[in-house]
Write a structure and sequence with these properties.
Elements (H helix, E strand, L loop, with lengths): L1 H13 L3 H21 L2 H19 L3 H12 L3 H36 L10 H10 L4 H9 L6 E2 L9 H19 L4 H20 L10 H35 L12 E2 L13 H29 L11 H13 L4 H6 L4 H22 L2 H8 L4 H17 L3 H5 L2 H12 L5 E7 H14 L11 H13 L13 H19 L4 E7 L4 H12 L7 H8 L2
Parallel strand pairs: 1-2, 2-3, 3-4
Helix pairs in contact: 1-2, 1-3, 2-5, 2-8, 2-9, 3-4, 5-8, 6-10, 8-9, 10-11, 10-18, 11-14, 11-18, 11-21, 12-14, 16-18, 19-21, 19-22, 20-22, 22-23
């Protein structure tokens, strides 16, 4: 196996872990088999020889080898170069994915070796251990944790054009290779696994890595959804599990933890330099996020409905849960099937009715006009969802099922509800300061305040803007005709008001790029105040928090 030998050579030079080295060798072997099946053997020879020549030419500064490398590549046809680049790209993307699996494996391995006095380095347990060692009491440690406000922001990387189907296939291939190296298989199981890996690689190579058309904002949103709905969604409850276990280890208590992690996103809302991000695109993005997170809740609720098979004949429920159940039944009717199946299972009845509420919100998103969506969103908000889950939790706890109420599916769902809400991630809106200045200059001219705003000094601009913000009159006539760019900016603040009406958490903050002075921020407040429908104090206040 030529490629495997090349991999051996570079694995030794890079000093990667033995386990990762084995996985990369397996990957090389699989790729060589697939490529040999698809192309001639000469291509494999070139694939394996070129990296060695490049390493000698560049790492060792060998000029003779460099000339040999240039001559060799110069003889290749365009098609051959295209094939080489294709295989190298697939190879290194898969290696990156294998490295991620290896990091997870190493961290798990380290966890097996840890003790209370020697927690894993850079882990949550070590952080809480350090608080304990420095004399922080349980209350003080919790106060420190409660002050944390972690808000990672997801952006659309301009060079990341891989499609969702490519990402899924890469993840699947490397996951199977990792398992093949780590788990025990019978001979027949191993044959099946190998064939599945080979088939998946064939399909990966047969799939266009990038779309034939330029990536749209909608494509970027879809890619962002992939991470939210997979790794991020799965990981968040685990982080809180680690934090709870750390407190149990070092403070002998399992406290109620605050939500310290929430997410933001620029995908579909970053307008700076991207004319394709319109108000419609941003509105559709927040609706897509809402739709996807509601679907995830439905999946979680369906699992929890199967899980909570608690009989009302054996465990009583609280009066509060009973009252909530009766109220829900006035809004949604349980089907005859569910009434029969869950006749003595109140928790399953309650979860089914919660699912009906979520399904109703989903149906509204898919078919209704914006006004109907905004109206329906007020009827069942994330705070109501959390209240429903809390009623179930308190009833389980009161009925003697303390562990069920505090651990597992219900606890994970509550954490996700408090983290992702019905919005998934707050959208930050970003725009360039020059566009704000141009729009405000036009509005001030229409209002006959000044025709020379842009030529004023910074101090003069601040004076004019401050006076206008304290003036109760409209800045200019409501139906005044303005330039397209100004109208678009005003529409953005109208959109922010609608986002806040849909869900208080759907809008993150307004970011002004290339800010040079205080006037750049005051201009945004002027625009927020000028919303055609009449600026609400809520929108103006939100903008003031930039």
């Amino acid at each position: 196996m030529l490629w495997k030998k090349t991999t051996d050579y570079f694995a030794k030079k890079s000093e990667i872990s033995e386990n990762l080295g084995h996985q990369i060798k397996s990957l090389s072997q699989f790729l060589e088999e697939v490529i040999t099946d698809k192309d001639d053997a000469d291509l494999i020879g070139d694939i394996t020889e070129l990296p060695k020549l490049a390493a000698k030419a560049f790492d060792e500064g060998d000029e003779e080898t460099l000339e040999k490398l240039k001559d060799k590549i110069g003889e290749f046809s365009t098609d051959k170069i295209s094939s080489l680049l294709r295989y190298y790209t697939v190879y290194f993307h898969l290696i990156n994915s294998l490295e991620q699996h290896e990091i997870t494996r190493i961290n798990r391995e380290r966890s097996f070796k840890t003790t209370a006095d020697s927690p894993r380095t850079e882990s949550i347990a070590e952080a809480v251990y350090q608080l304990s060692e420095k004399g922080y009491s349980k209350e003080e440690a919790l106060e420190v944790i409660g002050k944390l406000d972690i808000q990672p922001t997801i952006t659309a990387h301009p060079t990341e054009a891989r499609r969702h189907s490519i990402l899924v296939k890469q993840q699947h291939i490397t996951s199977m290779i990792s398992k093949l190296e780590q788990e025990q298989y019978t001979p027949d199981e191993r044959k099946t696994a190998v064939l599945e890996i080979l088939n998946e690689i064939h399909l990966l190579l047969a799939t266009d890595e990038v779309r034939s058309a330029r990536v749209t904002v909608e494509d970027e949103v879809e890619n962002g959804m992939f991470y939210f709905m997979n790794s991020i969604w799965e990981t968040v409850p685990v982080l809180y599990d680690d934090l709870r276990e750390a407190f149990k280890t070092y403070y002998d208590t399992v406290p109620e933890l605050p939500i310290i992690l929430k997410y933001r996103s620029w995908i579909g809302s970053d307008r700076d330099g991207n004319p394709k991000v319109t108000t419609d695109v941003t509105w559709n993005t927040i609706l897509e996020q809402r739709e996807n997170v509601l679907k995830l809740y439905l999946e979680e609720l369906d699992e929890m409905r199967r899980y909570l098979s608690v009989s009302g004949n054996k465990y009583e429920i609280t009066d509060e849960l009973q009252a909530s159940l009766e109220e829900d039944k006035t809004l949604f009717t349980l089907s005859d099937r569910y009434q029969r199946l869950y006749k003595h299972e109140p928790y399953r009845q309650k979860i089914t009715l919660i699912m009906r509420k979520i399904e109703h919100q989903l149906q509204t998103i898919r078919v209704a006009r914006k006004e109907e969506i905004l109206e329906e969103a007020q009827k069942y908000q994330v705070s109501d969802f959390i209240t429903d889950l809390e009623l179930i939790r308190e009833s389980l706890k009161s009925g003697g099922l303390q562990s069920v109420s505090s651990y597992g599916k219900l606890k994970n769902l509550l954490i996700r509800a408090r983290t992702f809400g019905f919005h998934l991630a707050g959208l930050d809106i970003r725009q360039h300061s020059k566009l704000h200045e141009d729009a405000v200059s036009e509005l001030l001219s229409l209002a006959k305040v000044t025709d020379e705003y842009e030529s004023l000094t910074e101090e003069e601009k601040i004076t004019v803007l401050t006076q206008e913000l304290s003036n109760p009159r409209p800045l200019c006539p409501v139906k005044a005709k303005v330039e397209d760019n100004t109208r678009e900016l005003l529409d953005v603040f109208e959109l922010i008001g609608e986002m806040l009406e849909l869900d208080q958490n759907s809008f993150g903050c307004y970011i002004i790029s290339m800010t040079h002075g205080i006037s750049d921020m005051l201009e945004v407040l002027i625009l927020a105040r000028k919303r055609d429908s009449g600026a609400t104090s809520r929108t103006a206040y939100q903008a003031s928090l930039i």
